[in-house]
Amino acid sequence: MSEDAVQIIARGARAEAEAAAQAIDADPALEMVTYSILEEDEDKGLWRIDAFPTTTEEAEGLTRCLADFPGMITVVEKLADADWLAMALSGLPPVRAGRFFVYGAHDKGRAPTNAVTLRIEAGAAFGTGHHGTTVGCLLAYDTLLKRRRFNRVLDVGAGTGVLAIAAARTGTPIAVGTDIDRPSVRIAGENAKLNRAANARFVYASGLGHRDVRVQAPYDLVFANILAAPLVALAQDIKGALKPGGIAILSGLLRTQERRVFAAYQSRGFRLARRIHRDAWSALVLVRA
Predict the structure, then answer these.
(1) Domain span at residue 56?
(2) Which of 221, 216, 227 is nearest to 254 (CA)?
(3) CA-CA distance, 92 to 191, in Å (whole number)?
(4) How many other C-beta atoms lie within 10 A of the C-beta of residue 15?
(5) Are 178 and 155 in contact (CB under 8 A)?
(6) What digits encode the pLDDT tens for the residues 101-143?
(7) Phi, psi at 156, each rounded to 5°
(8) pTM for the complete prediction?
């Protein structure tokens, strides 16, 4: 861990910000870095990247990467010695995505009665429901649920478990989530208990080879809200995990990365059913032939 927790903030025009985000995604040394990209000021056309390195090496790598984009103004801010993540989350409003209402403990009293409510406590895991990629996945899933139900759902890179829990809460009897981060697996399990989603189970696993993942295959639906590079690398494994006619909801990719990711799946017999854009992010709904 780095001696002092820092946040790296970079601001610039959309094209420059998206190019910088692509560079971060493409750098193997920054594969595990948590960052977000969003539109900060629509009138000024100002976009912003917020990155949260956890080691000195990550902080230095991010600084070097962003230095290649002179149109981005980058600052490094030291975070106070406090539970800054919990403080930040406490200020986030609840999110409505179709029938789903995602909220934290601080908004418990605001949950509507006409929604599938998902109480998600993030801790150190990704996926509060506020990020454009998570919202896109929930919106895509909400639309699919209007036509069919899914008996077996796999959530690759589950983070807080919000997507697997959403499946469990809407009638899926078997919902399996995986993550390469042990704290995330623990947090996802805790969130499943909070939401009384006993049929959502989470395992620590890299890839789709874990026994608890294979034993439930083939799946009707696979969520993969990760990053563009691992989405491409997992294309064949995700195909193998799906039933013929099964659906993959892919996100964690920028709009500029859609073509690259879709090409990897199209070559394996997937067709594009829908795309959803939220800010600079994209969610792809693909059907296995």
Answers:
(1) 6-81
(2) 227
(3) 18
(4) 12
(5) yes
(6) 998 776 666 778 789 989 887 554 455 555 678 889 999 999 9
(7) -90, 125
(8) 0.71
